[in-house]
Amino acid sequence: MASVTNLRSNHHAKLAAWLPLFVLPVVAVWSTRNSAAWLCMWALAFSIYAGLKWLSYSEYVENHFCTVRRSIGYLVAWPGMDAKSFLSTSPSFAPPHPWEWRAAVAKMVIGCVLIGIAVALVNRQMWVAGWTGMVGITLALHFGTFHLFSTAWRQAGVDARPLMDAPLLATCLNDFWGKRWNLAFRDLAHTYVFRTCVGRWGIAVATMAVFVVSGVIHDLVISLPARAGYGLPTLYFVIQGAGVMFERSPLGKRLGLRHGVVGRIYCAVLILAPVGLLFHPPFVERVIVPMLTILRLDWS
Question: Which residues cross the membrane (predicted)?
Fold first, then answer.
Protein backbone atom coordinates (compact mmCIF):
# COMPACT_ATOMS: atom_id res chain seq x y z
CA MET A 1 0.00 0.00 0.00
CA ALA A 2 2.84 2.36 0.86
CA SER A 3 4.53 1.66 -2.47
CA VAL A 4 1.32 2.51 -4.35
CA THR A 5 1.06 5.77 -2.41
CA ASN A 6 4.67 6.61 -3.22
CA LEU A 7 4.08 5.91 -6.90
CA ARG A 8 1.07 8.19 -6.93
CA SER A 9 3.01 10.88 -5.09
CA ASN A 10 5.86 10.66 -7.60
CA HIS A 11 3.39 10.77 -10.47
CA HIS A 12 1.76 13.89 -9.08
CA ALA A 13 5.16 15.52 -8.54
CA LYS A 14 6.18 14.79 -12.13
CA LEU A 15 2.88 16.15 -13.41
CA ALA A 16 3.26 19.33 -11.36
CA ALA A 17 6.80 19.77 -12.68
CA TRP A 18 5.95 19.30 -16.37
CA LEU A 19 2.45 20.78 -16.59
CA PRO A 20 3.42 24.49 -16.74
CA LEU A 21 5.68 23.81 -19.72
CA PHE A 22 2.65 22.73 -21.75
CA VAL A 23 -0.02 24.97 -20.25
CA LEU A 24 1.79 28.32 -20.17
CA PRO A 25 2.53 28.51 -23.94
CA VAL A 26 -1.12 27.75 -24.71
CA VAL A 27 -2.17 30.53 -22.35
CA ALA A 28 0.36 32.85 -24.00
CA VAL A 29 -0.98 32.19 -27.49
CA TRP A 30 -4.59 32.52 -26.39
CA SER A 31 -4.02 35.73 -24.43
CA THR A 32 -2.19 37.42 -27.33
CA ARG A 33 -4.42 36.15 -30.14
CA ASN A 34 -5.61 39.69 -30.91
CA SER A 35 -2.33 41.42 -30.06
CA ALA A 36 0.68 42.43 -32.11
CA ALA A 37 2.91 39.60 -33.33
CA TRP A 38 5.86 40.86 -31.30
CA LEU A 39 3.81 40.67 -28.10
CA CYS A 40 2.96 37.07 -28.95
CA MET A 41 6.66 36.35 -29.49
CA TRP A 42 7.68 37.72 -26.10
CA ALA A 43 4.75 36.02 -24.37
CA LEU A 44 5.67 32.66 -25.92
CA ALA A 45 9.35 33.09 -25.13
CA PHE A 46 8.66 33.95 -21.51
CA SER A 47 6.07 31.18 -21.06
CA ILE A 48 8.41 28.50 -22.41
CA TYR A 49 11.25 29.90 -20.31
CA ALA A 50 9.04 29.92 -17.19
CA GLY A 51 7.91 26.35 -17.83
CA LEU A 52 11.47 25.12 -18.26
CA LYS A 53 12.59 27.09 -15.23
CA TRP A 54 9.91 25.53 -13.05
CA LEU A 55 10.77 22.08 -14.39
CA SER A 56 14.44 22.42 -13.50
CA TYR A 57 13.59 23.80 -10.06
CA SER A 58 10.97 21.15 -9.26
CA GLU A 59 13.23 18.28 -10.24
CA TYR A 60 15.98 19.57 -7.95
CA VAL A 61 13.96 20.42 -4.83
CA GLU A 62 12.21 17.05 -4.98
CA ASN A 63 15.35 15.50 -3.48
CA HIS A 64 17.28 18.46 -2.08
CA PHE A 65 16.74 21.20 0.44
CA CYS A 66 17.26 24.85 -0.44
CA THR A 67 16.41 28.09 1.31
CA VAL A 68 13.43 30.24 0.38
CA ARG A 69 15.71 33.15 -0.47
CA ARG A 70 17.85 31.06 -2.81
CA SER A 71 14.73 29.57 -4.41
CA ILE A 72 13.24 33.00 -5.11
CA GLY A 73 16.56 34.15 -6.52
CA TYR A 74 16.73 31.18 -8.87
CA LEU A 75 13.13 31.49 -10.04
CA VAL A 76 12.90 35.24 -10.59
CA ALA A 77 16.41 36.70 -10.75
CA TRP A 78 18.57 34.21 -12.65
CA PRO A 79 17.95 33.11 -16.28
CA GLY A 80 20.11 29.99 -16.03
CA MET A 81 18.72 26.46 -15.79
CA ASP A 82 21.43 24.70 -13.77
CA ALA A 83 19.41 24.39 -10.55
CA LYS A 84 21.96 22.12 -8.89
CA SER A 85 24.81 24.62 -9.13
CA PHE A 86 22.76 27.69 -8.24
CA LEU A 87 20.77 26.20 -5.35
CA SER A 88 23.67 24.34 -3.76
CA THR A 89 24.93 25.98 -0.57
CA SER A 90 28.51 24.77 -0.96
CA PRO A 91 29.61 25.83 -4.42
CA SER A 92 33.21 25.68 -5.61
CA PHE A 93 33.88 28.39 -8.16
CA ALA A 94 36.01 31.46 -8.69
CA PRO A 95 34.55 34.89 -7.92
CA PRO A 96 34.09 37.25 -10.86
CA HIS A 97 37.02 39.24 -12.17
CA PRO A 98 36.66 43.03 -11.83
CA TRP A 99 36.73 43.42 -15.61
CA GLU A 100 33.55 41.32 -15.94
CA TRP A 101 31.45 44.15 -14.52
CA ARG A 102 32.79 46.55 -17.13
CA ALA A 103 32.45 44.01 -19.92
CA ALA A 104 28.82 43.25 -19.05
CA VAL A 105 27.88 46.93 -18.92
CA ALA A 106 29.76 47.60 -22.17
CA LYS A 107 27.85 44.83 -23.96
CA MET A 108 24.57 46.21 -22.66
CA VAL A 109 25.43 49.71 -23.87
CA ILE A 110 26.57 48.54 -27.30
CA GLY A 111 23.42 46.45 -27.66
CA CYS A 112 21.23 49.41 -26.73
CA VAL A 113 23.10 51.60 -29.23
CA LEU A 114 22.44 49.04 -31.97
CA ILE A 115 18.77 48.95 -31.02
CA GLY A 116 18.70 52.74 -31.26
CA ILE A 117 20.30 52.60 -34.71
CA ALA A 118 17.76 50.00 -35.79
CA VAL A 119 14.89 52.17 -34.58
CA ALA A 120 16.29 55.14 -36.50
CA LEU A 121 16.58 53.08 -39.70
CA VAL A 122 13.30 51.19 -39.52
CA ASN A 123 11.38 53.46 -41.91
CA ARG A 124 14.22 53.68 -44.46
CA GLN A 125 16.10 50.36 -44.41
CA MET A 126 13.67 47.78 -43.06
CA TRP A 127 15.87 44.70 -43.44
CA VAL A 128 19.01 46.39 -42.17
CA ALA A 129 17.03 47.72 -39.22
CA GLY A 130 15.52 44.31 -38.50
CA TRP A 131 18.83 42.47 -38.39
CA THR A 132 20.58 45.28 -36.53
CA GLY A 133 17.79 45.24 -33.96
CA MET A 134 18.06 41.48 -33.45
CA VAL A 135 21.82 41.70 -32.94
CA GLY A 136 21.30 44.58 -30.52
CA ILE A 137 18.68 42.72 -28.49
CA THR A 138 20.87 39.62 -28.28
CA LEU A 139 23.91 41.62 -27.25
CA ALA A 140 22.07 43.74 -24.67
CA LEU A 141 20.07 40.87 -23.17
CA HIS A 142 21.97 37.59 -23.48
CA PHE A 143 25.52 38.95 -23.45
CA GLY A 144 25.06 42.06 -21.33
CA THR A 145 22.18 41.79 -18.87
CA PHE A 146 22.54 38.07 -18.24
CA HIS A 147 26.30 38.45 -17.74
CA LEU A 148 25.62 41.24 -15.25
CA PHE A 149 23.27 38.93 -13.32
CA SER A 150 25.93 36.22 -13.34
CA THR A 151 28.58 38.59 -12.04
CA ALA A 152 26.33 39.89 -9.27
CA TRP A 153 25.34 36.41 -8.11
CA ARG A 154 28.91 35.13 -8.09
CA GLN A 155 29.98 38.19 -6.15
CA ALA A 156 27.30 37.22 -3.61
CA GLY A 157 28.70 33.69 -3.34
CA VAL A 158 26.29 31.87 -5.66
CA ASP A 159 27.43 29.56 -8.46
CA ALA A 160 25.90 31.31 -11.46
CA ARG A 161 28.31 30.96 -14.34
CA PRO A 162 27.79 33.14 -17.46
CA LEU A 163 25.33 31.69 -19.97
CA MET A 164 27.45 32.84 -22.90
CA ASP A 165 31.03 31.62 -22.63
CA ALA A 166 32.91 33.61 -25.30
CA PRO A 167 31.23 31.93 -28.31
CA LEU A 168 33.50 33.81 -30.72
CA LEU A 169 36.37 31.70 -29.38
CA ALA A 170 34.70 28.42 -30.35
CA THR A 171 37.14 26.07 -32.07
CA CYS A 172 34.46 23.94 -33.72
CA LEU A 173 30.70 23.59 -34.08
CA ASN A 174 30.41 21.16 -31.18
CA ASP A 175 32.38 23.54 -28.96
CA PHE A 176 30.07 26.42 -29.93
CA TRP A 177 26.74 24.70 -29.26
CA GLY A 178 27.84 22.39 -26.46
CA LYS A 179 30.07 24.60 -24.31
CA ARG A 180 29.71 28.26 -25.25
CA TRP A 181 26.29 29.30 -26.58
CA ASN A 182 23.23 29.63 -24.30
CA LEU A 183 24.33 27.22 -21.60
CA ALA A 184 20.90 27.50 -19.97
CA PHE A 185 19.31 25.52 -22.80
CA ARG A 186 22.36 23.28 -23.06
CA ASP A 187 21.95 22.23 -19.41
CA LEU A 188 18.29 21.29 -19.84
CA ALA A 189 18.74 19.66 -23.22
CA HIS A 190 21.56 17.49 -21.91
CA THR A 191 19.50 16.42 -18.89
CA TYR A 192 16.10 15.80 -20.44
CA VAL A 193 16.84 15.03 -24.09
CA PHE A 194 20.39 13.76 -24.54
CA ARG A 195 20.50 11.51 -21.47
CA THR A 196 17.05 10.13 -22.24
CA CYS A 197 17.98 9.20 -25.80
CA VAL A 198 21.63 8.20 -25.58
CA GLY A 199 21.06 4.99 -23.63
CA ARG A 200 18.42 3.77 -26.07
CA TRP A 201 19.61 4.97 -29.47
CA GLY A 202 23.21 6.09 -29.10
CA ILE A 203 25.10 9.37 -29.29
CA ALA A 204 24.20 10.23 -32.88
CA VAL A 205 20.44 10.02 -32.37
CA ALA A 206 20.67 11.76 -28.99
CA THR A 207 22.67 14.61 -30.51
CA MET A 208 20.21 15.09 -33.36
CA ALA A 209 17.30 14.91 -30.92
CA VAL A 210 18.73 17.85 -28.97
CA PHE A 211 18.95 19.96 -32.12
CA VAL A 212 15.47 18.96 -33.28
CA VAL A 213 13.96 19.92 -29.91
CA SER A 214 15.80 23.23 -30.04
CA GLY A 215 14.46 23.79 -33.54
CA VAL A 216 10.88 23.08 -32.51
CA ILE A 217 11.14 25.52 -29.59
CA HIS A 218 12.51 28.22 -31.88
CA ASP A 219 9.76 27.47 -34.38
CA LEU A 220 7.18 28.11 -31.68
CA VAL A 221 8.74 31.44 -30.67
CA ILE A 222 9.68 32.64 -34.17
CA SER A 223 7.33 31.12 -36.74
CA LEU A 224 4.12 30.95 -34.73
CA PRO A 225 3.96 34.70 -33.99
CA ALA A 226 4.89 35.45 -37.62
CA ARG A 227 2.32 32.91 -38.84
CA ALA A 228 4.71 31.85 -41.57
CA GLY A 229 8.06 30.14 -42.08
CA TYR A 230 7.01 27.02 -40.21
CA GLY A 231 9.76 24.43 -40.08
CA LEU A 232 12.58 26.74 -41.18
CA PRO A 233 14.07 27.25 -37.69
CA THR A 234 13.87 23.50 -37.13
CA LEU A 235 15.65 22.94 -40.45
CA TYR A 236 18.36 25.35 -39.33
CA PHE A 237 19.03 23.32 -36.20
CA VAL A 238 18.91 20.05 -38.13
CA ILE A 239 21.69 21.48 -40.29
CA GLN A 240 23.62 22.34 -37.12
CA GLY A 241 23.17 18.81 -35.80
CA ALA A 242 24.27 17.32 -39.10
CA GLY A 243 27.27 19.64 -39.05
CA VAL A 244 28.26 18.45 -35.58
CA MET A 245 27.93 14.82 -36.64
CA PHE A 246 30.04 15.42 -39.75
CA GLU A 247 32.87 17.09 -37.82
CA ARG A 248 32.89 14.06 -35.49
CA SER A 249 33.10 11.65 -38.42
CA PRO A 250 36.41 10.11 -39.59
CA LEU A 251 36.36 12.38 -42.65
CA GLY A 252 35.66 15.44 -40.54
CA LYS A 253 38.55 14.59 -38.24
CA ARG A 254 40.89 14.11 -41.22
CA LEU A 255 39.82 17.50 -42.56
CA GLY A 256 40.61 19.08 -39.19
CA LEU A 257 37.11 20.40 -38.58
CA ARG A 258 37.40 20.17 -34.79
CA HIS A 259 40.35 22.50 -34.20
CA GLY A 260 42.50 25.23 -35.63
CA VAL A 261 41.69 27.70 -38.38
CA VAL A 262 39.79 25.12 -40.41
CA GLY A 263 37.55 24.31 -37.46
CA ARG A 264 36.81 27.97 -36.80
CA ILE A 265 35.97 28.66 -40.44
CA TYR A 266 33.76 25.58 -40.64
CA CYS A 267 31.98 26.64 -37.44
CA ALA A 268 31.38 30.21 -38.67
CA VAL A 269 30.12 29.10 -42.08
CA LEU A 270 27.73 26.48 -40.70
CA ILE A 271 26.27 28.94 -38.19
CA LEU A 272 26.03 32.06 -40.34
CA ALA A 273 25.32 30.79 -43.87
CA PRO A 274 21.86 29.32 -43.10
CA VAL A 275 20.90 31.87 -40.39
CA GLY A 276 18.19 33.19 -42.72
CA LEU A 277 16.31 29.96 -42.04
CA LEU A 278 16.33 30.67 -38.31
CA PHE A 279 15.33 34.33 -38.50
CA HIS A 280 13.34 34.03 -41.70
CA PRO A 281 11.94 37.02 -43.64
CA PRO A 282 8.35 36.75 -42.29
CA PHE A 283 9.69 36.92 -38.74
CA VAL A 284 11.80 39.98 -39.46
CA GLU A 285 9.02 41.71 -41.41
CA ARG A 286 6.03 40.84 -39.22
CA VAL A 287 7.55 40.66 -35.74
CA ILE A 288 10.85 42.54 -35.41
CA VAL A 289 10.14 45.52 -37.68
CA PRO A 290 6.74 46.34 -36.10
CA MET A 291 8.35 46.15 -32.65
CA LEU A 292 11.06 48.59 -33.72
CA THR A 293 8.39 50.83 -35.23
CA ILE A 294 6.57 50.94 -31.90
CA LEU A 295 9.82 51.89 -30.18
CA ARG A 296 10.33 54.67 -32.73
CA LEU A 297 6.87 56.05 -31.99
CA ASP A 298 7.48 55.85 -28.25
CA TRP A 299 10.84 57.61 -28.51
CA SER A 300 9.69 60.35 -30.90
Answer: 12-30, 36-55, 104-122, 128-149, 201-222, 228-246, 266-283
